[in-house]
Every structure is written in C-alpha cells, then in structure tokens.
Amino acid sequence: MNKPSIYGLTLDQLTSWLEERGHKRSRAAQVWNWLYRERVADFTAMTDVNRETLQLLAEHYSILTLEEHTKQESVDGTVKFLLRLSDGNLIETVLMRHKFGLSVCVTTQVGCNIGCSFCASGLLKKSRDLTSGEIVEQVMKVQLHLDQARKDERVSHIVVMGIGEPFDNFEHMSNFIRVIKDHKGLAIGPRHITVSTSGLAPKIMEFADSDLQVNLAISLHAPNNELRTRIMKINRAYPLEQLMPAIDYYLEKTNRRITLEYILLKGVNDQREHALELAQLIGDRRSLANVNLIPYNPVDEHSQYQRSTQESITGFYDTLKKQGVSVSVRLEHGTDIDAACGQLRSKQIRKAQ
Ligand code: SAH
Ligand code: SF4
User: Fold this and answer.
1) Do 28 and 106 reside in the same domain of the chain?
2) Is residue 1 part of a domain?
3) Which tens digits make up the pLDDT trace of 231-250?
4) Alpha-carbon distance 110 to 349, whole Å?
5) Which ligand is nearest to the CA of 94?
6) What is the Å distance from ligand 1's center to 180 Cα?
7) Of 83, 93, 118, 251, which has the maximum CB count within 10 A?
C-alpha cells in the first residue's frame, strides 16, 4: 500500500495527528514550514525537527507521490504537466500566465462521470477520486517547477477546472482548499480561488453553507432545459428549475458574485436568440453574475461540435452587453499544446491502448 501525501492534511489535522501520538504541538508548525516555505522533498531534510517525529511521519506519509510523465511548454508560457499517480493513473495540471499573476488549473478526479457531450475528460469514465493530498501536490509540483527557474515566482491563483467534477469529490476538494488557503502555507487568497461545477444543485447549496468562501463558476452553456439537456445530460438530474434556485441560495448566503460559463458551439447555442434568452434567464441576477464566454476547443471524438466564428462570438458578446449583462470572453492559453481539459491525457491513454 502506498503512503498518502502529507500535503493532504491541514495544519490543524497535522497538529492533532501528532498530538494524539504524544508529540508536541509545535512540531506541526515546524514541519509545515519545511513543507510550504522551504519546500523540501524529504522528511530527513527537516533538520530542526525532532528525530522521532520525523520517523513517525515517514512511517505513515510520503511528501511527493506524483511523478512527472511529460511536460509541454507553450509559446505563451503555459505549461501543461501530465502527472502519474502512485497507482499509475495519469492526470493533467496546467500553469497559466496572466497579467494578474500565475494560475494553476487542477484535476480532481481520474476521468469524469458527468459525461458532457463536448468534453474530452468525460470520454474516460471516472476510475477514482483524487485525495486532497494529490490535489495539493499538483500545485506543489508547479511551484517546485517555478522554484527551479529561480525567478522568485509564486502560484497566486487556482482554478478547479481540470479533469473531473469537483462537487462529486466534495470532501477532498474542500480539504484541498483549506490547505492552500492557510496563511502559514501557500497562502492563496480565497478571492483567487475558483471552483467550477457542472451544476450539482444540492452541492452548490452545501458549498454556500461551508466555511470555504471561495469563488464559484457554473457551467451553464445553454439558456433553456431542452438545449442544456442535449449538450449536458446532467441537466436531466438538475434542470434549471433546480439549478437557478441553488444559484440564488449561493448568492444570498455568500454575497459573492458568481461566474456563469458558456461554451460557444457553432450553430448549437451561439445565436442571437440564445443570447437574448440567456439575458432573460439571468434576469435580476445581472448585478451579481458575470458571463464568461468560452471559445470551444475542438475535441476529435466530438466532431459534431465546432468552434463558433469570431463574428458569432462578438455578436453574442454584444447582444449580452446591450441587455446589461456583465460579460467577458475567456482568453485562451496554450492552444498549441492541447490545453483543453483532458485532451492531453485522453490522447496519451488512447495511444497506449
Ligand atoms: N467539471 C467541472 C470543472 C471542469 S471542466 C465543470 O464542468 O464545470 C471546466 C470547464 O471547461 C467547464 O466549463 C467545461 O464545460 C469546460 N470545457 C470542457 N471541455 C471543453 C472544451 N473542449 N473547450 C472549452 N471548454 C471546455
Ligand atoms: Fe466532467 Fe466538467 Fe467535462 Fe462535464 S465538462 S464531462 S462535468 S469535466
């Protein structure tokens, strides 16, 4: 049995774990400092920590459990990591460079069971959830990659938008967020963390009630049930009559703005009438919602979908603007390196099959 990564523990959890085994509370803070500030790869490098404590930790935990399989760098500075989990499964993590900082897109599951009709990740059924340690470790892998270049760069933003449905792995996703937010650790600000969901309504409410306090993005992609069910079968389980009230609950509870993601698929959901219907659906939520238009990244297996023309994208944007909806178009990163979610992984796996 492989040992889990110690990165899966919050500082409180590590403190209790050590205390329960008769070790001093203060040791947890020391270990934490070595993990997140010094970023050492081995317990033996924690030179000021008591030997028995290190021995106990090494018996139960690893620090790094992920191995780099391949790394692709794009001309725009995007880096896509294909990582191997200790059980051999492959996952993807992406580093993106923006004007406002460096963001990392993390994976939460091996594959995805939601099976949206346009997505490469859903091509491979979920084989398991990632542990919180494996999700934190993705960020650490990227941070270690940056450390190597010695430019003093720091991961500042996190998007939970890689392979998988984060709300179908709620506990590990939540623990991951608690770990990366910790001021004494990676200290990533809650406003710099965004979780994206395909719209599991009950989990959106649970998220609103939680202590996590980070941003939420909803993959809406269509302005009515008929179209949404056609492209996202999850809409059968959680149609708009359930999703929109869950969004309202979130808005009321958290006082935060929300992002509505909308992939533009040529001739499917990108017409003026769809933009008008979307504005209507958003209705009174205009002041609290931002629509993020996503140019579709074509997937070989889903050849029924193409990217909307630039003219349609601009037209859709303008129509929403005129309706008083706050809207942006997602900038693309690493289009030369298969940067759409799940594409690199699914290609790699199919090549190996
Ligand atoms: N499962 C979650 C988070 C991961 S997907 C969710 O669905 O929200 C993150 C975002 O990428 C979602 O909005 C998803 O719809 C979008 N996406 C998936 N495949 C895409 C593709 N080929 N091109 C552009 N965006 C894609
Ligand atoms: Fe899963 Fe999200 Fe892809 Fe849908 S879009 S199949 S929920 S990863």
Assistant:
1) no
2) no
3) 999 999 999 999 999 999 99
4) 12
5) 1
6) 23
7) 93
List pocket residues of ligand 2, CB cut-off 6 Å. 112, 114-116, 119, 121-122, 164-165, 198, 219
Q: Do residues 295 and 255 lie in contact, with contact meaning Cβ atoms separated by under 8 Å?
A: no
- Tell me: do 236 and 301 sit in the same domain: yes
Instruction: 84-88: list long-range contacts, CB under 8 Å, 24+ apart.
Output: 85/110, 85/130, 85/134, 86/2, 87/2, 87/128
- Residues 169 and 32 occupy one common structural domain: no
Domain of residue 47, residue span = 6-60
Task: List, for residues 186-209, the tens digit of each pLDDT value.
Answer: 999 999 999 999 999 999 999 999
Task: Note whether residue 310 is domain-resident.
Answer: yes
Which residue has a Cα nearest atom 4 of ligand 1? Answer: 161
Q: How far apart are CA 287 and CA 19, in angstroms?
A: 48
One domain, residues 96 and 192: yes
Q: 132 with 177, same domain?
A: yes
Q: 26 with 154, same domain?
A: no
What would the pLDDT profile of 35-53 be if each residue is shown by its tens digit? 999 999 999 999 999 999 9
CATH of the domain at 86: 3.20.20.70
Lowest mean pLDDT among 4-18, 125-139, 339-353: 339-353
The strand pairing partners of 307, in sequence order, are: 265
Q: For all residues of the chain together, what is the average pLDDT?
A: 93
Catalytic positions are 92, 341
The alpha carbon of 172 and the centre of ligand 1 are apart by a number of angstroms equal to: 20
pLDDT band at 350 (very low <50, low <70, confident <90, very high): very low
Q: Mark whether 129 and 240 lie in a shared domain.
A: yes
Any ligand 1 atom below 6 A from CB of 196: yes
Q: How many domains does the chain have?
A: 2
